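re: ur question from earlier - yeah i can do the single chain one, its not a big deal. heres the input i used so u can compare w yours
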Amino acid sequence: MKIAISIIIASVLIVGAIVIAGQSGSQDVVIAVSNVSVVDGKQIVEIGVKGGYFPGVSSAKADMPTILRMKTQGSFDCSSAVLIPSIGYRANLPPAGETDIVIPPQKSGAILQGSCAMGMYNFQIQFN
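and the output i got, formated as tokens:
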């Protein structure tokens, strides 16, 4: 009798776990990333640099002075060699610290593309 009760309890727990896991997997999870701030009339777009660029896509306001702040921390890979062709920017970032890049005001709909020197890692800023 004790074995039968143990089997029933175990079965209920297993079925309950499957139902709960199935429900949590069916819901969409949205994580908002806020890497853009406005300070003294300039917007600052912060991008982390290490093994790529994070976030890879940012949204910023159009027709506003912009500073792209590249934040490195122990970055020794090719992502520290940054290229932004549309503004003629090319530089090797320090392994740790913040590098500010002045971006001229962009028109609505403009997309600023950047990459590492090898083209393996990319980022973009969409101006709206």
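The longest helix spans residues 2-25. not sure if urs matches, ping me
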